[in-house]
Design a protein that fits this description.
heterotrimer, A mainly alpha (289), B alpha/beta (263), C mainly alpha (327), A: mainly alpha, ABC transporter involved in vitamin B12 uptake, BtuC, B: alpha/beta, Rossmann fold, 2 domains
Chain lengths: 289, 263, 327
């Protein structure tokens, strides 16, 4: 029993890492761009498919580096030519725009790569259990968790120590003031969007190796990512990551005891959080409202 | 007993002390001006009294009842109603519709998904009264967003009056108005106070208006209470003059205004 | 904002003779649908679908366009209506009306209970929470296999003839269209009545300026929750009718894709006008029906409708027409 619970908890942790990575990207875009990016899951899937296509040429590691960059480049075009036109309008417009984009991009993925799932080849190096007792600790799974933590750490370093990052954080707090300081907020928002999409791409490739590659893989992850943001606390990137890990593990542990409820439990957590602590784990009151 | 009493009220935002140990009393029927240089804490004080946020320390009494940390919805029911420095009205609705919503909230019927003909005409009657009182009846059918800044301010005061306030808080009621509109607004303030007996506390930068309208004046500076008294006392107060002098030659305005008020 | 746009934004205030005339003509056209629709290449069930989606989008629009609450989760209440009807007819009753009532109340009750949770946050976070809450029902429907039929959907129920004392009305295609039309009309009357009342005035005022409403003594969040509940009830009525139309329901009726469709219907037709979502539903349902029968990549076409109408048609059809007529 114990090891089964541990297995499910660990599986939950991995899924939670994907939620967290998604949620961080969504949070970034939500904060500075003020956009609920419904196409986030589709960008994620697209990056994974691009990696799939690049792998025969570049290998796993090459694809892991290049594919998110390509997705981010597409993100740049989307921000520059579509989303930018909607910043001054009510949020419903950008929301519906990204929703429509998600439909189009998903259709595109189906047309190019087919509706069926595709196999992703994991490097041999990562494909073995690290321990006989804890058989579920495969190299890839540990790698996923490590990669999630590493890339989040890198993001926080960028946000804290680079000029761009400091401006993004300042813009999150008060975009108008940042604008009056002479920062080009259009450029800032574009950079931020690209950064968010880059994270989606990264999560996509990692997730494809674990959960499989299908055109709708992003859809199954985006909803829990929304929940992760609400639970983790609005406006807090660390909160988003923690929220993702928390609901992932909670969902995993529930699988061990009451499998049918594993998908629902995260919404219960959100409901409880909203009632007892509406600001979420690390959120600030009244931000972005 | 005073209508409104502040006892040692402070408000801090993190390390910033916006208001420090303010005590003041406003009697029923008073027409009081609140003045002070920019950043003195005037709007913060309004926000505390109207329940926008609670004081960090101290107690606020309204009609003898403790109201610190009471939410604005409850305070409106108790009779405290305010306008804002930046006019808050319903810009896409007509003047008539703006006042109608206010009247319906005041009559406590906003939750009703239907109304009888009698109630409907009672609402209409009250709206017409208000249109007449603030003298904006000629623009009843106009969309509020198209009106001049001054007329929008008048609409906001009209909405506040729908509630028959016990304490009316006006935050810079004449800001951005032309001479004509200012004249209209000051007359209205006087009329509301004298004829309807409404207690009014208003923030104002134009010293002509302050000294011409207010019976008593409270001066804030840098989050603290600097002085309080009649127009003449305030104009003669050296500390007030010093505070305004620090603002860059405003002393002339204070004394000059005093001369106006006296004339 | 321009004056013309502003006028379009108010609740319906005065009903002029011209409005009555337009309503009369529109109503007559709707009654005559089964007679003329074959001649324009349509079919009666399609017209029923248009009415159902129109009712759902109009219900959603009470919250969206008239109260200013962007819910992305109203498919949940639509779907609850569907499952309520399906389960009632399958296990409990042969009365179509009773099942309709049960479905509507189920969805309405859920909206009444969950609205207060969602309104604890405002702005885009309100939207995000409504999405997540809505999706919870999707997962429940998928996982609760033995009750809901899981991903395959709920089958094994159908609408039964209406029984009145001394009268039995079979609900064939044409009769069912009139059945839908009756409830569509009732739903519209409910929404119209609310918008004419002090409650409706308060909703519109909250959309315009919630700070002002708070300082007029209105507990804004509670009012938004109420709008949420009424709007959820109407959407649930539409969902109930939809299950009766198809004699089938599936998790797709709960999915956020449907929420998105209802929103684009409202925006496409004009979310600031009462009949906007009706116009949007006509366009959306017809285009979807036509395109999906024609090509496989119909999702791209739907996506393009979203993108293009958001970029170039933000006021929607009715908003656009109103602005032109005012110029």
């Amino acid at each position: 029993m114990g090891i089964v619970v541990l297995l499910d908890a660990f599986n939950g942790l991995i899924v939670g890492a994907f939620y967290g990575l998604m949620a961080i990207g969504l949070s970034l875009i939500l904060g500075l761009n003020g956009v609920i990016n419904f196409a986030h899951g589709t960008f994620m899937a697209l990056a994974a498919y691009l990696a799939f296509t690049l792998m025969p040429v570049l290998g796993f590691w090459g694809a892991l580096v290049v594919a998110p960059v390509l997705a981010a480049a597409l993100g740049f075009l989307v921000e520059r030519f579509l989303i930018r036109r909607l910043y001054r309008r009510e949020p419903i417009y950008s929301l519906l725009l990204t929703f429509g984009l998600a439909l189009i991009m998903q259709d595109l993925i189906r047309t190019i790569w087919g509706a069926q799932g595709q196999p992703i080849t994991i490097p041999n190096l990562l494909d073995h259990p690290l321990s006989n007792t804890y058989f579920f600790l495969t190299g890839y799974r540990v790698f996923v968790v490590a990669a999630a933590l590493l890339s989040t750490g890198a993001l926080f370093a960028v946000l804290r120590y680079t000029r761009l990052g400091i401006r993004i954080r300042a813009g999150n707090a008060d975009l108008e003031t940042v604008a009056t300081l002479g920062v080009n907020i259009y450029l800032l928002r574009a950079a931020n969007f690209v950064l968010g999409i880059y994270f989606a791409g990264l999560a996509g490739i990692l997730a494809a190796g674990q959960l499989g590659l299908t055109p709708t893989m992003g859809d199954t992850l985006i909803m829990p990512s929304f929940v992760a943001i609400v639970v983790g606390g609005v406006g807090s990137l660390l909160g988003s990551l923690l929220g993702g890990l928390l609901i992932g593990v909670a969902s995993g542990v529930t699988t061990a005891f009451f499998p049918a409820a594993s998908a629902v439990v995260i919404y219960v957590i959100m409901g409880v959080m909203l009632v007892i602590r509406p600001r979420g784990l690390l959120g600030q009151e009244g931000l972005l409202e | 007993m005073s209508l409104l009493s502040l006892r040692h009220v402070s408000r801090r935002f993190g390390a910033l002390v916006a208001l420090n140990d303010i005590s003041l009393d406003i009697e029923a029927g008073e027409l009081r001006a609140l003045i002070g240089p920019n950043g003195a804490g005037k709007t913060t004080l309004f926000n505390l009294i109207s329940g926008f946020f609670p004081p960090s320390d101290g107690e606020i009494l309204f009609g003898g009842e403790r109201i610190a940390a009471t939410d604005p919805v409850t305070l409106v029911r108790k009779g405290i109603i305010r306008t804002f420095q930046i006019t808050e009205i319903f810009l896409d609705l007509t003047v008539y519709e703006n006042l109608r919503v206010a009247v319906e909230t005041a009559m406590g019927i906003s939750l009703r998904p239907w109304v009888s003909r009698a109630v409907r005409s009672a609402v209409d009657l009250r709206v017409q009264e208000l249109l007449e009182l603030v003298r904006i009846g000629g623009r009843a059918g106009r969309v509020a967003g198209e009106l001049s800044h001054g007329d929008q301010r008048v609409v906001e005061v009209g909405m506040a009056l729908a509630h028959a306030p016990r304490l009316l808080l006006l935050d810079e009621p004449t800001a951005g108005m032309g001479d004509e509109e200012t004249h209209h607004m000051t007359n209205l303030i006087r009329q509301l106070n004298r004829e309807r007996g409404i207690t009014i506390l208003f923030v104002e930068h134009d010293m002509n208006i302050v000294f011409g309208v207010a019976e008593r004046i409270t001066v804030l500076d840098n989050g603290a209470l600097l002085a309080e008294g009649t127009a003449a006392e305030i104009a003669a107060n050296p500390r007030v003059q010093a505070a305004y002098l620090g603002q860059g030659g405003a002393q002339a305005r204070v004394t000059g205004s005093h001369a106006d008020a006296a004339s | 904002m321009s004056a013309t746009l502003a006028r379009a934004a108010g609740a319906p205030t005065h009903t002029t003779p011209r409005t009555w005339l337009a309503l009369g003509i529109g109503w007559a056209l709707l009654i005559a649908v089964p007679f003329w629709i074959p001649f324009v290449g349509g079919y009666t069930d399609l017209a029923s679908r248009v009415l159902i989606y129109a009712l759902a989008a109009m219900g959603l629009n009470l919250l969206l366009g008239f109260t200013g609450g962007l819910s992305f989760g109203h498919a949940a209440y639509f779907g609850l209506g569907c499952y309520g009807v399906g389960l009632m007819l399958k296990y409990e009753t042969h009365s179509t009306l009773l099942a309709l009532l049960a479905g509507t109340l189920l969805g309405g009750a859920a909206a009444l209970l969950l609205g207060p949770v969602a309104v604890r946050r405002r702005g885009i976070y309100f939207s995000m929470i409504t999405i997540a809450i809505g999706q919870m029902f999707y997962f429940i429907a998928v996982r609760w296999n033995n009750l809901t039929g899981g991903e395959d959907g709920l089958t094994g129920f159908r609408r039964h003839p209406l029984h009145f004392p001394g009268l039995t009305v079979p609900l064939g295609t044409t009769n069912f269209y009139y059945f839908v039309l009756v409830f569509f009309t009732l739903g519209c009357a409910l929404l119209w009545g609310v918008l004419q009342s002090p409650l409706g005035h308060a909703f519109v005022a909250i959309r315009e300026n919630h700070k002002r409403m708070r300082f007029l003594g209105i507990p804004v969040a509670r009012y938004i929750a109420l709008s949420f509940a009424i709007s959820g009830l109407v959407v649930a009525l539409a969902g109930s009718l939809n299950a009766l139309l198809d004699n089938f329901t599936s998790p797709n009726d709960l999915d956020y894709t449907l929420s998105g469709n209802l929103l684009i219907i409202a925006v496409l037709g004009g979310m600031r006008s009462f009949w906007g979502p009706f116009v949007g539903a006509i366009i959306f349902v017809l285009v979807r029906d036509y395109v999906s029968s024609l090509i496989t990549n119909w999702m791209t076409v739907i996506g393009l409708i979203f993108v293009l109408s958001v970029l170039f048609f933000p006021l929607g059809v009715l908003g656009f027409l109103r602005r032109r007529s005012a110029q």
